[in-house]
Every structure is written in structure tokens, then in C-alpha cells.
Amino acid sequence: MSARIHPFHGGLVLEGHKALSTRTPPAPVPLPERLVVPLHQHIGAAAEPVVEPGRRVLKGEPVARAAGYVSAAVHAPTSGTVVAVEPHPVPHPSGLSAPCVVIEPDGEERWHEACRGTADWHALAPEELRARVRAAGIVGMGGAGFPTHVKLNPGPGRAIHTLVVNGAECEPYITCDDMLMRARPQAVLEGARIMQRILGARRVLVGVEEDKPEALAALREAAGTAPDLEVRAVPVRYPSGGERQLIHLLTGLEVPSEGLPADIGVVCQNVGTAAAVRDAVVEGRPLVSRIVTVTGGGVAGPRNLEVPVGTPFAHVIAQAGGYTGEAARLIVGGPMMGFAVRSDAVPVTKTVNCLLVATREEVEPARDPRPCVRCGACAEVCPARLLPQQLYWYARAKDFDRVQDYKLFDCIECGCCALVCPSQLPLVDYYRYAKSEIWALERERERAERARRRHEAHVARLERERAEREARSRARRRRATDREARQAAVAEALERARARRTAQAQGGRAEGDGAEDA
Q1: 3-class DSSP state for residue 97?
Q2: Residue 387 three-state SS
Q3: Could you tell me the end-to-end alpha-carbon distance of the chain, in angstroms, rounded to an integer?
Q4: What are all long-range contacts of 398-405, with beta carbons under 8 Å and residues at least 24 apart?
Q5: What global pTM score does this model have?
Q6: Residue 186 and residue 222 in contact, taking contact as beta carbons nearer than 8 Å
Q7: How far apart are CA 73 and CA 435, in angstroms?
Q8: What is the pLDDT of residues 246-268, one digit of tens each?
Q9: Dihedrals phi, psi of 63, to nearest 5 degrees
Q10: Integer angstrom CA distances of residue 514 from 501, 502, 506, 511, 518
Q11: Domain residue limits at 255
Q12: Which CATH number goes with the domain that contains 429?
């Protein structure tokens, strides 16, 4: 395959605002008074708690186990005492609450004895390496949170030839990946090598946007001249960090509509995920902390911080100098794909990469939507080559069959279409609404199908029980008939025997009478 860069369709060049938070290297955040650790920090089923209030835990000790294959374990971010297992507000646009394990740190930071790694990971089988990744509770750290062990198991019939490591970090304001690549390039590449071994991939391609020269230099120095690992600079164009977009940029391959990268022999992982894989395998450390960008005009000292999972947002922001008088909105993630939260009491999770404390100037102004003028600007910038205006019309009309015909689920919700819309239409909101409604309808259909199967099984069971009862009744009747027949036969035999005896007796008496007469 060619080493050149293959531009993707659409996209936008956005002001980065990256320099705000890259002046100092990442620093560790002191432990808060309490850590609130959600059980659902990933795509898939929520983890199941294995601790109760009053339990002493050590750092890295499991506090919740994975509930099925597409799930992820959760570990204690420090040593201390579990004080509650209860619902607590979590990072979510709706402000919903979810089950959490609340830990009161003891300040000792004692690691659990099971947290042991190996530098000689080359000697381990791919299955063993994958099992260690799974046990460490690692999920995609670029924001999606998909369990990493699942992506590292593409399944039979899918030969993976290329591992793409995503260091593009294209969204404005976010710099946690940039600072990680600068500070720990060897860890990123060793994690990539471990994943390459698990997948059996022939090569590793690391994609980094051109506006990160320090990260590119650090990675290239760490990579050396290895023929099967290449660090490439990609153009600064949002959303180059989208999985499909980066794969196309680096390989020229197109992920099929509604398909997966594994369908074309590629797996894509974030640089933060790669470093976490290395820490799990080499150091034996589960995923209990991450680098978080704290930035925006509403925070006094924008920077990147190494944050234990479960740390309240308020505590993290305080370590960045606290709020300024201009703080207007707290956004999880970036301005394009992030979401606002109402409270800073919610905790950092494995997927929180940025806390954007935005001023009124940085926050998108309130929109006053007007009718679509069919200008086509949205289609020109769509990186997925969709027709956003058609998706809008069908989503608005709740025509969920037609909206799927126009490949709704290929939409990555990057927000390019909404940003250029002259009518100020909240296009992504419509797409998210349509997706959630379709998922709800599918869940309802699945429930109805399960109910139908239960009803059919119930009817079949009743019919089977009825047939079994009838069979038993027939058998009883046959046995009764057979018994009566046998009894009748015996009675007849006895009657015949009595008749013979009677006849014999009568014959004997008749002979006696004849002798007397003679």
C-alpha cells in the first residue's frame, strides 16, 4: 500500500486553541476526600459490584467485575475503605445518576498484590495478553469507551494486517493525547507492539496531526528505523481523528457502510489506550487513572492533569487554578462532540478526556433555527459522504425507515454540518434523536420477540403437558382394561373349573345311585 496520505471527503479547518493547555507537562492530581467510581464507564453492560460498604480495598483491586463479554471490570483507584455502593450523578447530558462505588482514601496508595506485570511479554501467547488487557478493565480512551479486549479479538475469518494508532486528536481545545505522546512515547509504542502481537498484524501506523511537532518528534525517535512501524503526520483537518477518516488517511481503504474496520483487515486504537495496554501488561496496573485536559477561558490555569478515576470535576478544576469570573459552561469533551453538564460534582471516568470551562464567547450562541434552504453546504463538509439535509427531513418526520436508507448510522456526529448550516439548524440533535428512537424501537421489538417466544414456549409446554397427561391416562386405561381382561379370563377359568368339578361330582353321585339299585 502507498505511504502517501489519502485525503478524506469534507471536514473543516478549525481554530485549535491547543496552546492554552500545553505549556506544562501533565501533573498528578492529589487524592480528593472521596472517589466516586461509576460501574458503567464503557459501552456494553455495566460492571457488577463485588464489594460492600465497610470493605477495605487496595489500589488496583477489582471493585466490580465485567457483566459479560462486552463489559469491563472496574478497579479501586487508590487504597481505602468502601463507604457506599449507591447511585450518584455521572457525566451524562441528562444529568442522570448511576450505581457507583464510593471510596474514602487512606492516603497510603498501597497496590494490590495481584498487580504484577512482565517485561518479557513477547513470550506470552496472544490469548494470555488479551486476557490481561481484559482483566485490567481497559476501554477505548479516545471517548467511545468500547472494551479494548473485544476490539483485539476480531473473530474468525478476519485477518488483521494493519494496526492504526490514533494520535490525531483533532477536536479543538483537547491536548491530553498530545501531552501523553510527548511525555511517554515509548509507552505508547510498546503498547502498540503488544496489540500488534495480539492481533497478528503485519504493520503499525501511528497517525498524528501536523500541529503536534513535539509529539511527532518524540514518537519518531522512539520508533527508530523499525520497518513495520511508521509514524505519519496527517493534515490538520477536523475530524481527522475519526476512526474511519484516519484509516482512510493512512491506508486509502474505506470502511464499508455499517461495517467495521476489521472487515477490511484494520483495527484502530487510541494512543491513550495503547499506553494503558502497556501499563497493564508490563507493570500489571489496571486502568485507574488518565490524563485529562482542563482548559478554556473559564479556568485560571489551563493544563493537563493525571487524574484518578472517580475524582469529582470540582476537585480537578481546583488543581487548574479554579474558575475565573468568566466561566459560563462546563463541557465534557470538546466544543464539537462534547456535552454540557449541570454540576461539577460528577466524577472523572475512563472516557473523560477534557473538561472545557467555556466563557460566553467560547460557547456557541443560542441558535434561532430557520427553514432549510437546501444550499448543500452540509453535504460538502460531511466526512462520511452523507446527505445531511435528507437525514434531517426524515428524522424530523420520524420516518425511521427512510432515515436508515440514507445511512444514518454512518454518521459520526462530528457536527461539521451543523456548524456550516446557514439556517442554524441543530442537525446533530436530530440525528441523535433518530438514533435513540430507532434503538428504542429495536429494544421494544426485541422485548416483543422475547415475549412471543416465551408465550410460544408456554403454549408448547402446556400442550406437551396435556399430551403427556393424555398418554398417561391412555396407559392407565390400557392397564385397567388389561387387568379386567385378565381378571375375566381368570374368572372364566375358575368358572369352568367349578363347572367341571360340579359335573364330576354329579356324575359320581349318579354312578353310586345305579350301583345301589343293582
Answers
A1: strand
A2: coil
A3: 136
A4: 398/434, 398/437, 400/434, 400/437, 400/438, 400/441, 403/434, 403/438, 404/438
A5: 0.86
A6: yes
A7: 28
A8: 999 999 999 999 899 999 999 99
A9: -110, -10
A10: 20, 19, 13, 5, 6
A11: 19-31+119-358
A12: 1.10.1060
- Domain identity same for 292 and 159: yes
Q: Among candidates 339, 285, 233, which has minimal Cα distance to 114?
A: 285
Cis peptide before 308 (omega within 30 of 0): no
Sheet containing 48-49: order of strands: 48-49, 62-65, 74-75
Nearest-angstrom CA–CA distance, 492 and 473: 28
> Model confidence over 421-455: pLDDT tens digits?
999 999 999 999 999 999 999 888 888 988 999 99
Contact 52, 30 (CB under 8 A): no
By C-alpha distance, which of 196, 186, 123 is closest to 164? 196
Same domain, 209 and 144: yes
Count of structural domains within the chain: 2
Distance CA 452, CA 444 (A): 12
CA distance 80 to 87: 20
Same domain, 397 and 324: no
Considering the domain architecture, whether residues 297 and 412 belong to the same structural domain is answered as no
Residue 490 lies in a domain: no
